[in-house]
Design a protein that fits this description.
Distance between the termini: 32 Å
Radius of gyration: 20 Å
Number of strands: 10
Number of domains: 1
CATH topology: TIM Barrel
Strand content: 5-15%
Largest sheet: 8 strands, parallel
Number of helices: 12
Shape: globular
CATH architecture: Alpha-Beta Barrel
CATH superfamily: Dihydropteroate synthase-like
CATH class: Alpha Beta
């Protein structure tokens, strides 16, 4: 998958998306990076900690968020985007559902657009992404939370978004899907999706998981947002076990390390000849012992 000037070889390892919110009201780090200099320093930290992509968000999408107009969103995003592009050679994603914001960001070097409404809220959004050959992350969201079948309904909604992007001219090879943990889903539904991410990794499109420090963790084990790092890492490990390609997190270093180790455990990272030795051909064991070794 091509994102900006960089090639992402899906399936070879897990890619980490570092969150950079430049909003005053995001649920975890709202107000911390509203100044350009602080935002750039944060971007540098995310990159040095191992982020493969940095995602800039200019409008909170937390439950009960207050929408902002496009001009306000662009005023938050664009100065940071420009400054980060001058400092870092890393693909930049923009978290927006507004076509005019996406176009301004793409004109200034953004490479990936992440739409928390699945490119359904603004009918021009797919056209803008196609115009600039942008990579797109389709996140699941909906107004109607009366699911007949959570997994099937999410898959159906995602497929509608994918088709809209492709019909607008977006390259199918540049589409990522996100099942939308915490969006139009209660805690139990979010956990059900996490347990069944393999349902979505069976799609042609790679999957991004965005579970970092979200409220379902608090509902599940009673932790405040500032205490949810370890629980977030648990979701990262589970997602990688189910072949999730991208993990979107606030805490890059810790999740990156967990991802690296999980990749070693669940992906084919061994030298083939060495792996054969590790798996063993039974040399040195009795027939009975060989029978109990397994593959």
């Amino acid at each position: 998958m091509q994102i900006g000037s960089q090639e992402f070889k899906i399936g070879t390892r897990t890619f980490i998306v570092g969150i950079l919110n430049v909003t005053p009201d995001s649920f975890f780090d709202g107000g911390e990076y509203t100044e350009v200099e602080k935002a750039v320093n944060r971007a540098k930290k995310l990159a040095s900690d191992g982020a493969d992509i940095i995602e800039i968000g200019g409008e909170s999408s937390r439950p009960g968020f207050t929408p902002v107009d496009a001009q306000t969103e662009m005023a938050r995003i664009l100065p940071v985007l420009k400054a980060v592009k001058q400092e870092l050679n890393i693909p930049i994603a923009i978290d927006t559902y507004k076509a005019v914001v996406a176009e301004a960001a793409l004109q200034n070097g953004a490479a990936l657009i992440n739409d928390v409404f699945g490119f359904k809220k603004d009918p021009e959004h797919p056209n803008v992404c196609a115009k600039y050959n942008a990579a797109c992350c389709v996140m699941h969201n909906r107004d109607d939370t009366n699911y007949k079948s959570v997994l099937i309904d999410i898959a159906t909604d995602l497929q509608e978004s994918i088709e809209a992007l492709i019909n607008a001219g977006v390259d199918p090879q540049k589409i990522i899907i996100d099942p939308g943990i915490g969006f139009a889903k209660d805690a139990e539904q979010s956990i059900h999706v996490l347990r069944n991410l393999s349902y979505f990794t069976a799609f042609a499109q790679p999957v991004m998981l965005g579970a970092s420090r979200k409220s379902f963790i608090g509902h599940s084990i009673g932790l405040d947002v500032e205490d949810r790092l370890e629980a977030t890492i648990a979701t990262t490990v589970l997602a990688i076990q189910q072949k999730c390609a991208f993990i979107r997190v606030h805490d890059v270093k810790e999740n990156k390390r967990a991802a690296m180790m999980t990749d070693k455990l669940v992906r084919n990272y061994f030298n083939p000849s060495r792996e054969a030795q590790c798996r063993g051909n039974g040399a040195g064991f009795t027939p009975a012992e060989r029978g109990g070794l397994g593959a």
